[in-house]
Amino acid sequence: MNIETFRDYCLEKKGVTEGLPFGPDDLVLKVMGKMFTIASLDEVPLRVNLKCDPEKAISLREEYPDNIFPGYHMNKKLWNTLILDGRLSNSFIFELIDHSYDLVVLGLTKKLQKELQDL
């Protein structure tokens, strides 16, 4: 998967914005102001961090040891780094993006969840 496909999929989600708060090499995507993914624009192959349920994070790392690692520069319990070198299918990556987005939405305040719903 390339950065354009990754970015476009994320931006199609409700309430998502993008920015470069950590510098020009790290694209951050947020839902209602809360980060759900970071893509390292200077890495080849593309590397992205996605939030993940702690138990699922461990099982994914065990099942895909060459492509999924504890989140680089992130809370290792709650974030995974994925290497997008073509060994993980696009549909699987989309599923993990959805999971990260949904986790962040669940953690939003009721007020922000309502605002998101009304968009």
TrEMBL record:
Keywords: DNA-binding. GO terms for molecular function: DNA binding. PANTHER family: CYTOPLASMIC PROTEIN, CYTOPLASMIC PROTEIN-RELATED. It comes from Antarcticibacterium arcticum. Pfam families: YjbR. This is MmcQ/YjbR family DNA-binding protein. InterPro entries: YjbR, YjbR-like_sf, YjbR/MT2646/Rv2570-like. It comes from the Bacteria.
